# Entry
Amino acid sequence: MQKEIVKASRGSDARVYFVWLPMLPTDNESEAAGMSRNPAARRARHFYDPKRRVGIALIEEHFHKDTHEALAALPEDAPFRQRLARWAAAPASESPLWDAVMFFPPGAEWHSTSPRPEWWTKQIGFSGEGERHKSTGQFLRNHIKDGPVESDWFVEAREGMNLMRQRISH
# Structure
């Protein structure tokens, strides 16, 4: 994922930041530091957030509202509705935002609240290691009301970078 995002950002003024939250056993400070030494990471900065503050803030300040709006728009029998309802009911401290990519406009700054991403995607289901050009999971995007899409991290990273390039060039 890191390699794809950094590759997609070449030739632009994009800044790439990775924030590691301890969600899985391999999501630790040592792994984050190791990834920051990877040659593909020269244009990226890695941060380790042991208390998951970034993921909690993003849920509280943006994604809880989006989730509730999506629930209001989805039909009662939508297959994704139950999972979305569980996320909406969970406190942000128990369900911080992770496995997500967010794109912010140039000059976005984090002050007392987090900036709102212009485009985002979050993996919500994993169907296994894929072959090139095959979906590996389900992702939510900005239009959360539309429900999940089958995709993979490479497609998601390219989609976000392409959209941001278009917006910046206009």
Notes: The beta strands are 16-20, 44-48, 100-103, 119-126, 137-141, 149-151. The chain is about 35% helix and 20% strand.
